[in-house]
Amino acid sequence: MSVWRHKDLVSIQHLDADEIREVHAAARTFKDVIRREIKKVPALRGKTVVNLFVEPSTRTRISFELAAKRMSADVVAVHSETSSFRKGETLKDTVRNLEALKADFVVLRHKAAGAAQFIAERLGCSVVNAGDGAHEHPTQALLDTFTILEKRGRIEGLRVLIAGDILFSRVARSDIWALTKLGAKVVLCGPTTLLPDVFRDLGVEVSHDFDRELPRADVIYLLRVQHERQQHMMFPSIGEFVSLFGLTPERMERCKPDALIMHPGPINRGVEITSELADGPNSVILEQVTNGLAVRMAVLYLLNGGQAPETVAEGIA
Amino acid sequence: MSGPKHAQGVLRVRGGLVIDPANGAEEVRDVVAIGGRIVDGAGVAMAATDEVIDARGLVVAPGLIDVHVHLREPGRPDKEDIASGTRAAARGGFTSVVAMPNTTPPADSASAIAWMRQRAEERAAVNVFFTGCISQGQKGELMAPLASLKRAGVVAVSDDGQCVQNAELMRRAFEYAGMIGLPILDHCQDFNLSAGGAMNEGYWSTLLGLPGWPAIAEEMIISRDALLAEFTSHHVHCQHVTTAGGVRIIREAKQRGVRISGEATPHHLTLTDAAVQDFDTNFKMNPPLRTARDIEALVEGLEDGTIEILATDHAPHCSYEKEVEFEAAPFGIVGLETALGVLFQALHHHHKLPLAKILRKLTINPAKLLGLADKGHLGPGADADITLIDPGMEWVVDRSTFASKSHNTPWHGAHLKGRAVKTIVGGRVVWDLARDG
């Protein structure tokens, strides 16, 4: 029996552990599907998914698009470059138009925190947050925890180090919620300017000493340094950032041999992580991408009211 | 001052509990006015009265003065204008409002002020006092013609919303305004420290991923202004103080004898940044809602006199402007029609502040700040601006009943206790709850 009760997926903050586990369980089924020769199930046949990406994104957009297609939905993509946002249409008007077009799902990527909730409150159809400003990126956290679970068999009790630009990261926020709800010990690490102490109030540890934290970490989660968002006041230079918080082979030698290296992408090779480590044996970065597809299929499936995904998966050959 | 003409004849407000903080009075008696001015009632025979208002069971206060409103005229009549804004004031029990100069175009010239005063003479439901800009066009670069503005009738200057960042310009404005006796009101905000900020920087901004507008950005400018006030010996009034640190800085400066005063708003005294958690833009204002600790400090500041004035920062915006992504929404809420209920409920019924203490900050203190000798009290010779209040009346806010053109309130549906029931300006009833609703 499904525990999923939400019309939308706007945040991890408002999910409980059982709901997260249900997404994981469904994602396991869909991961089997996407490994087959015919990677498609009819679960969303006749449904329309609108991918509304008001902020540039490649991988998340493609991942959602592919997930919807694997579920047999019709997919419409709206990008900021081509949409009427450029002509000054408000988000509310865009939403009303989508409503009028009878979309079943809207997947929204937007630069403003709260944008997904804004449209979810105003739309009858299901809204999936594909990243809203620095607020949340729930499917990323679901695929991250799915990946850790797959690789390590458990999440509870693991020490997960999230490092880099925490302040501007929606990934960090969603991962903090997901990991702590599932019982992991979360340690944040970054410069004081990008990691204010107030993060402790979210139930995590805050550290500014990368070298001290690395050897104890079961998972090393590196965040992209968001060049475009730094206003040249948060740290003096990329070089100095790398010297303090970049994952290098020398640092990796002092880590647990089985420590997982994760990254939400896109990677700045040579900044938060060296190129060889990103491609090395501890890295599960590409696995995250594959799992992202399965998790997004699971999310669309559950939002559609789907139950017992294994029956859907078996029903097609 | 611009507004309705004084009434003719004799008005008697009968049998109410008169609270006149300026004169230390709190007693049941009649208030009598002749030709729109308060007189000593003892010498006026009952038979000679033209109009009697029964105030038994009500508080009779000097007409409330709101030193911080945005009437949006000229420039944005879709949000508010002098007529609608002053009707909202009357409905909230305010007999005088002080209009901020950030109109479109900004009120930085004598001709702009003359035009506005003319409009208010024709259309205002209550008295309107105008302010001028500190800097030309509120650009923070060149000093506005302060003496011309004063001659045109402004009661103070402010670059509200566009705090002057250049300390040299502010120093010169203090010196020059001091020479001509023109009060300076400052919206205290360091724009570098608050750049991009949409809400208070703290737990909730961190959780929501919204850019923070930190307390230090306000306190930095309050500190600067305190130092400039000390240096130039001129008075500065800090508008909408919201942080514990801001209260402390003002308190300490006052103890040193610096001429500084502070103002607090109903929303900063009652709501915290936790209210932003659903991204409701009716909780977005500038400065932003702070924390429970800040509210505690503001209430202490009210109690010990550090914060001398209560004002609304009535900031009307159209619903289509507010119904957007949180970061994109304009700052501000309307406040005139809810202020009294919010303040009485929070400060009197909850924090147990005496009514006289609250009313002082809405009447005589604002009048003194702006040098309005005939306002803010009920002594003989004062203008017959009187607000009748039922401090125990329980009511529910319904924004569809607002006289304001804008409905951007965080209190829609709120249960409040305390309400103005009659508003009298110059001896004339301009609003009556029973009559006008």
Write up what this structure looks like.
The complex is a heterodimer of chains A (317) and B (437). Chain A has 2 domains: 153 residues, Aspartate/ornithine carbamoyltransferase (Rossmann fold); 148 residues, Rossmann fold (3-Layer(aba) Sandwich). Helices cover 38% and strands 14% of the residues of chain A. Chain A contains 12 helices and 9 strands. Chain A has a 5-stranded parallel sheet with strand order 7-6-5-8-9, covered by helices on one side. In chain A, helix 1 packs across helix 5 and helix 5 packs across helix 11. Chain B folds into 2 domains: 104 residues, Urease, subunit C, domain 1; 311 residues, Metal-dependent hydrolases (TIM Barrel). Chain B is 30% helix and 23% strand. Chain B contains 14 helices and 18 strands. In chain B, the strands form 3 sheets. In chain B, strands 1, 2, 3, 4, 5, 16, 17 and 18 form an 8-stranded mixed sheet that branches. In chain B, helix 5 links the parallel strand 11 and strand 12. The mean pLDDT of chain B is 97. The chains are: A alpha/beta (317), B alpha/beta (437). At the A-B interface, helix 4 of A face helix 5 of B.
